[in-house]
Amino acid sequence: MKVTHELADRIGRSEIEAAADRIAPYLRPTPLEHSVALSARVGREVFFKPECLQRTGSFKLRGALNAILTLGEGERRRGVVAASAGNHGLGVAFAARLVRTPATVFLPENAPTVKRERIRTLGAEVRSVPGTFDDADRVARDFALRAELSYLHPTSDSAVIAGQATVGLEISRELSTLGTIVVPVGGGGLAGGIGLYARDTGTNTRVIGAQSEATPAMHASFGAGELVSTAPQPTLCDGLAGDADAIGFALLRRVLDDIVLVSEASVAATIRALYFEEGLVVEGAGAVGVAALREGRLGEAAGPIVVVLSGANIDAAVLARILESSTESR
Amino acid sequence: MKVTHELADRIGRSEIEAAADRIAPYLRPTPLEHSVALSARVGREVFFKPECLQRTGSFKLRGALNAILTLGEGERRRGVVAASAGNHGLGVAFAARLVRTPATVFLPENAPTVKRERIRTLGAEVRSVPGTFDDADRVARDFALRAELSYLHPTSDSAVIAGQATVGLEISRELSTLGTIVVPVGGGGLAGGIGLYARDTGTNTRVIGAQSEATPAMHASFGAGELVSTAPQPTLCDGLAGDADAIGFALLRRVLDDIVLVSEASVAATIRALYFEEGLVVEGAGAVGVAALREGRLGEAAGPIVVVLSGANIDAAVLARILESSTESR
After folding, report:
1. ipTM of the assembly?
2. Which tens digits make up the pLDDT trace of B204-238?
3. How far apart are CA B182 and CA B246, in angstroms?
């Protein structure tokens, strides 16, 4: 296993720029969008980085593409393995199909239907594992080791992190002065990547992570100063569920200013608001940054705020239920 | 009322290019996307023009922006009126908010909740009219006339059509050789605009319209060689419902090669396929072009095919119902 400070040291501005050039041909452009409603609400300029509009429905495609496009010829021929709460698996399946390499994706059994079905449709083999992401991760690692296939971890692989970091690069290319970037935190790949880029470019931008109260592993670890395990809870933020690992934790301690929590009710209200006020379909995990902003959890700081909307892949039935429930809380 | 051949004569390449420059700052980029699944299915290269990803969830923003940005100062101050099945109203509400002009939008009472709610959230006044789009259109025209407000018709206003035509301009900038463009047809603004651009650039591109069997007014008129009225039917393609008018009909006769029909069942199957195979949320009206392709309704012609996915605004409950229903037909 890679040592964390080495991983962080191996991903700098030049690696991130190389990743951006490598993956650009396969991405949808997702320029920043100014939010009139949120800017008025919080009294500062608020922009979305709408990765919910990205191909496969999340930013995870970036890391998966960068990892698969940098595999050696032999590795590529044999195939790749991933464990995923869903969106990383979608990214891996999409990228694997692009270069015609076989992919096997291990999902926790409660992964949303939309994610499971789309991964299968992209041609990857899907295997369901009882339990959580962490269980799927263990089974997948073991499978990859035995079959001598490349294992692409969603948050502790340096090529994956460099891919996710391209979100930070794109933000900084569009906004030269920037106060705060708010990023959903699960295992830490996206927040770590964006944080690495922000640190490496020497700006004073605050990078703040957001989690749900029902997916608080990284927040708890951050507060305790050591890895803390948390029990799985029902959540709208399936993409952020699971325990923190040593690599992600060490990376985030190094590059994040803070991690804040939001309630599940606030996530639901935010999904509704983004749908009706902004015309955006965002999954729970993708909404936590806006929820933190709406709840005033970010503290005071000067400058514009960029909130990363990390993904869109919410089951339609779940979305319908959220939209139909109490509209007063909007 | 404007005479049609005059309208067509007034919208040429230079008007469309001017519209593109005018509205570009407010649009999301929607580059063509190659469809692996559909290309394999039909044995030709198929690309999507994904206007379902456009701001407000449809291409209609283009025409509304172009119309409102070209209003005189006095007209702009007084305000604008629109009648709409929903997406044009969303475009008008978005554009009106941008230039701070009051907007009143008349919707048929059965317009989808998502469209009605979003128009209201954008700050426009929403008025429901019993009956169809055509009823809303009559009431809105009358209201605009009495109040001396600018009436922005969704399909027979030259600035609106020039705005929609920018879809054609963008397609032709990306693909120099092009066999067929397939476009959903309601009142004819989008298909007319794209057709005008294709004709004006002197390419041999076929431009083919698609409608649902439940929204066949323009198809029937096309076949009869004169305006034919059709009874309203239940449809997933609410955005295409309503009778053809003289202006749209004359425009489409001049610029379209054909109009084909698809079944409602095929529209539902296509919504499912786009969701699972392509990761795209598309409303019924936006799916008819792909349905026509999947059903083999387009006839034979050489060259790549571009299918315009015109919009995404489907009620989440309707989407959930479609996705949950029979998956065998996928």
Report:
1. 0.91
2. 899 999 999 999 999 999 999 999 999 989 999 99
3. 22
Angle made by CA atoms B230, B237, A55, in degrees to the nearest 5: 155
**Is A108 strand, coil or helix?**
strand
Which residues of B are less than 8 Å from A320 in CB distance?
Answer: 315-317, 319-320
Indicate the pTM of the whole model: 0.93
Smallest CA–CA distance, residue A51 to chain B, in Å, is: 12
Taking the CA of residue B134 and the nearest CA in chain A, the distance in Å comes to 26
Given this structure, which CATH class describes domain A4-59+157-324? alpha beta
> What does each C-alpha distance from B60 to A48, A59, B51, B209, B326 come to in angstroms?
22, 27, 9, 17, 32
Q: Which 8-state DSSP code applies to residue A236?
A: S
> How far A12 CA sits from the closest chain B CA (Å)?
29
Domains B4-58+161-324 and B60-151 belong to one CATH topology: yes
**Could you read off the pLDDT of A199-243 as tens digits, one per residue?**
888 778 999 999 999 999 999 999 999 999 999 899 999 999 989
- Integer-rounded Cα Rg, in Å, for chain A is 18
Tokens 């594992």, residue located: A129
Q: Residue A57: which of B56, B114, B279 has the nearest Cβ?
A: B279
Interface of B with A (CB under 8 A): 28-29, 31, 33, 36-37, 53, 55-57, 90, 97, 114, 117-118, 121, 275-277, 279, 281, 315-317, 319-320, 323-324
pLDDT digit string, tens, across residues A100-153: 999 999 999 989 988 999 999 999 999 999 998 999 999 999 999 999 999 999
Residues of chain A contacting B117 with CB distance shorter than 8 Å: 276
Closest CA to B241 of B168, B323, B186, B296: B186
Say which of B33, B121, B276 has its CB closest to residue A276.
B121
Helix (H) or strand (E) holding A121: helix A113-121
Name the class of domain A60-151. Answer: alpha beta
DSSP letter (8 states) at residue B225: T
CA dihedral B180, B185, B189, B192 (to 10 degrees): 40
User: Nearest Cα to B312, choosing from A104, A316, A69?
Assistant: A316
Under an 8 A CB cutoff, do B276 and A320 touch? no
Inter-CA distances, B156 with A102, A186, B95, B253, Å: 51, 50, 18, 14
* CB < 8 Å to A315, chain B: 320
Contacts of A316 in chain B (CB under 8 A): 275, 316, 319-320, 323
Ordered by start, the domain boundaries in chain B are 4-58+161-324, 60-151
Residue appearing with tokens 């996705």: B323
Spell out which residues of chain A touch residue B96, defining contact as CB-CB under 8 Å.
none
CATH class given for the domain over B4-58+161-324: alpha beta
Could you tell me how far CA B267 lies from the centroid of its own chain? 16
Q: Which residues of B60-81 are buried (b: 16+ CB within 10 A; e: fewer)?
A: bbbbbbbbbbbbeeeebeebbb
Provide DSSP, B31-100: --EE-HHHHHHHTS-EEEEEGGGSGGGBTHHHHHHHHHHTS-HHHHHH-EEEE-SSHHHHHHHHHHHHTT
Beta bridge partners of B50: B309
Cα separation, A60 vs A83, in Å, equals 13
